[in-house]
Amino acid sequence: MEASCLELALEGERLCKGGDFKGGTAFFEAAVQVGTEDLKTLSAIYSQLGNAYFYLKEYAKALEYHRHDLTLARTIGDRVGEGKASGNLGNTLKVLGRYDEAAVCSQRHLDIARELQDKVGEARALYNSGNVFHAKGKQQSWSFSQDPGDLPPDVRETLQKATDFYEMNLSLVKELGDRAAQGRVFGNLGNTHYLLGNFVEAINFHKERLSIAKEFGDKAAERRAYSNLGNAHIFLGQFSIATEYYRKTLHLSRQLKDQVMEAQACYSLGNTFTLLQEYERAIEYHLKHLLIAQELGDRVGEGRACWSLGNAYVSLGNHRQALHFASKHLETSREIGDCNGELTARMNVEQLMTALGMGKDLSPCGSEFEAQGARPKLVKRNSMDSLDLWKYSSEKDQNGDSHQMNESQARARSHLSGPIRSERDTQSGAESRWLDCRTSPVDTNDIRVQVAQSKISRHSSDEECFFDLLSKFQSNRMDDQRCPLDEQQNGVEGASSTPASSLDNRIAASSLMTSPQTEEFFDLIASSQSRRLDDQRASINNLPGLRITQNNLGHLCADPDPQEPSDDFFNMLMKCQASRIDDQRCSPPDPGPRAPTVPDEDFFSLIQRVQAKRLDEQRVHLSSDDQDETQEQPPSPPSPPPS
């Protein structure tokens, strides 16, 4: 006997609750194929299918079924279902990086929950809204290299909105007595305050998260709390406390048999012991990280481990062992195509060879980087990078690099000026041959190609002359593409020089725009645009699995007394639509290969910049060079110390 739609859906729900989302989606899809006339049942199937595909990370299908759910809920006037569908849509759009649309859906969910006085739904909507702004602010902060808390105003505003939503959610879940929800929002509040640079507040929230995780026996949440506490203490300069939290993170990662998290904990411990100048212990943990990275096939993490090991051995004075790991780092960077890593590793290898008295030159493609304008001193390092490696570079080497750059620029300039002169010499001959072609239908009187010899022979550089010539030719191309008006259609042209004649010219010119062909063209555009609008309308005929019968036809055809959305909803929708142009922009350059065994936030590079600034604050500024100038000028207010 063939199973009904409801029976298939119940079996799919049972499988999904057991964690078998693949099998659950198969039964839900079968239920949709069978179809049903019960609109409530079909809406529930859409919602479950969308959630199952979300957990399977098939976000396109999840978005499709959540949209079907929202369309059906609005059609039958189900306000509760509309709110849930809006929340699910917001979560899916957030994962897809479409944050503005996700914010609109989450706000819609919040408005409906407050309208229905649904406290549980309101708490979920507040949490989802906080997640949207949290994810948006975190992604925006990755685009900048400032220290934590030193964020642009728009990024800070986004993260502050996330904090506000989380605090409202925390107040509501405390009122509802939901301890599990409190634990989740404590963790997210700690993370947002960490991004804002409020490390003391972040520590307090993460401690609350740790307490609730222990209360529920949630080892994974406990491990995350320990790791976040270690990160926050790092930025407060409390490295010893951070090592204790990282050790607990490592212990729990081994209990959970999570090798990726174990490698990240070893990486964090190695860098923290480097900050404590306990280099032997740092080497111990970096070696553990290296072994796990090799076992998991993480070539990027392997390169980071070799990099850190080389720096640690340099600090111990073991340059030969440091050279071994620096060479490994160079080899790995070449294999994975990490240009910045390869350039830094090459520089480290050369400096170590100089320190060991080796004369081998390891720069077969070093000139390639220099020719592109790369300078080793401006390379951004992504991991803990011992500054001791720099003490072997001498002033002579730096002057040699700049001299080599000047020579390469001079060669490039001479190479560029040669073809320019040859093109200039042959230009007049080509022009005369082209103008002598009598069979050409083009009116040569309209074509003016002038090469001003005085301009080319002026005192500016050859490059400027070339670009002047190029811009002149390019500007004429725009005129060549214009559509000229037919002079014969304008019969009164040239008949009189009175104002009436110019008025007739305008009327005659405007008549061209109102010709039958023009009106037909605009009618075609209007019909095309109207069809595009119709294509975007939601239709109940497009809902899969829907059986239209006499029983549900009245619900589908009748107006369900929908409430008009508030002005705030439309304002948010307009803002979302206005930002669609950003979706068409070119994506930023690829930041480089990612390493699963290295934390996503490699905050040790930020710590290095903080430590470097502390060194600058302790420097003594000598003003002897500027003494003669300051005697002739009035004293200026003292400049603020470097931040």
Q: Can you describe what's shown?
A:
The chain is mainly alpha-helical. It contains 28 helices and no strands. The protein has helices spanning 5-17, 21-34, 39-55, 59-76, 79-95, 99-115, 119-142, 153-176, 179-195, 199-216, 219-235, 239-255, 259-275, 279-296, 299-316, 319-336, 339-355, 366-371, 395-435, 453-456, 462-480, 499-513, 516-535, 550-557, 567-578, 580-583, 604-617, 627-632.
The topology string of helices and strands comes to HHHHHHHHHHHHHHHHHHHHHHHHHHHH
| Helix percentage range | 55-70%
Residues in β-strands, percent: under 5%
Structural class: mainly alpha
* Termini Cα gap: 77 Å
Number of helical segments? 28
Shape: globular
List low-confidence stretches. Answer: 363-460, 486-504, 506-514, 624-643
Mean pLDDT: 74
User: What is the C-alpha radius of gyration, as a whole number of Å?
Assistant: 34 Å
Please describe the biggest sheet, giving its number of strands, its sense, and whether it closes into a barrel: none
